[in-house]
Amino acid sequence: MLSDTDWKLTRTFPSAAGDVRWDRLGDPGRPPVVLLHGTPFSSYVWRALARSLARHYQVFVWDMPGYGASEKAAGQDVSLAAQGRVFSELLSHWGLAEPLVVAHDFGGAVALRAHLLHGARYQALALVDPVALAPWGSPFFRLVGEHSDVFERFPPALHRALVREYVASASSPGLHPAVLDRLVEPWLDDPGQAAFYRQIAQADQRYTDEIQGRYTEIGMPTLVCWGEDDTWIPVAKGRELAALLPGARWEPIAGAGHLVQEDAPAELTAALIAFLQHPL
User: Fold this and answer.
1) Per residue, what are the HEC states of 19-36?
2) DSSP code, position 186
3) Lesser CB count within 10 Å: N end or C end of the chain?
4) Is 11 helix (H, G, I), strand (E, B) or coil?
5) Beta-carbon count within 10 A of 43 CB
6) CA trace torsion 155, 161, 165, 168 (10° rounding)
7) Structural domain contains residue 195
8) 3-state class of 66 per DSSP?
9) What percent of the chain lies above the pLDDT cut of 70?
10) In a domain, 186, yes or no
11) Whether the predicted pLDDT of 152 surpasses 70
């Protein structure tokens, strides 16, 4: 079990894309909930929600290959295609036939690809500011993707400043300094710096283009939550996505940017718990 004072994933799964660090909160036998983080984040963003849900659910958290505490290696495939396959592998490893799934940002596309392309089944799916509809990628994101080999050679101090500024921009009211430190920490050593630019270089819109036309096929209960002040993916994209998903609930969250988990944790937790308890 993860302690209240730290966030360390204690278990390892040897996926096809590298070792995945993961953990489980809550009593076995309770309904399973799986949380997927986005980029450039890790399971750490779910720490408060995971502990709240663990009172009534069995909660699975994991860092995707190339992120957080999971393996980061030269030449590693950390694309949306690879992450969708890894998620399907993990569900099988965990023995979860039809869990509840909550996914943020890049994790939303991972969950959607696993369902539409790899046959993963969910009891219900909650999407929080997901990467799902074209076009996506900020000008900065595209610039880094086109010149990742140059950015990888940045001096450590310059790289640190760039990553801190980029991560901080995901919040509307601003991140607590300790939280910002924790979010950028995995990207600051030599493997982390290379991994940061690798994941941006491999972020290709074609991985959502190939499933976007199939969103109308999704038959499970869905919830779309969105920070109204999201500057990374405008709230209009959230409304567009909710209209495409049959019967989806739409939950805008005032005062929150892209990192809704940090900007409005109480409001997001309330919306997600209400949905998970009564998805139909």
Assistant:
1) EEEEEEECCCCCCEEEEE
2) G
3) C
4) strand
5) 26
6) 120
7) no
8) coil
9) 98
10) no
11) yes
Q: What is the mean pLDDT of residues 73-77?
A: 97
pLDDT tens readout for residues 31-52? 999 999 999 999 999 999 999 9
How remote is the C-alpha of 188 from its chain's centroid? 20
Is position 129 within any domain?
A: yes
Question: Measuring CA to CA, which residue among 203, 183, 195 is closest to residue 143?
Answer: 203
pTM over 0.85: yes
Cis? peptide before 135, omega within 30° of 0: yes
Angle at 232 between CA 169 and CA 43, to 5 degrees: 75
Domain harbouring 273, CATH code: 3.40.50.1820
- What's 219's DSSP letter? -
List b or e across 262-276, with b for residues whose CB sees 16 or more CB atoms inside 10 angstroms. bbbbebbbebbbebb
Q: What is the span of the domain harbouring residue 225? A: 15-137+204-277
Nearest one of 68, 64, 171 to 107, comparing CA atoms: 64
What does the pLDDT look like over 12-29, one tens digit per residue?
Answer: 999 999 999 999 999 999
Is 128 within 8 Å of 260 (Cβ atoms)? yes
User: pLDDT at position 2, please?
Assistant: 44
pLDDT over 70 at 226, yes or no = yes
User: How many CB atoms neighbour CB 106 within 10 A?
Assistant: 27
Strand ranges inside the chain, DSSP E: 11-15, 18-25, 32-36, 58-62, 100-104, 124-128, 222-227, 249-253
Domains held by the chain: number:
1
Q: What single DSSP character describes residue 10?
A: -
- As a whole number of angstroms, the distance between CA 22 and CA 240 comes to 33
Judge contact between 48 and 269, C-beta under 8 A: yes
Note whether residue 160 is domain-resident: no
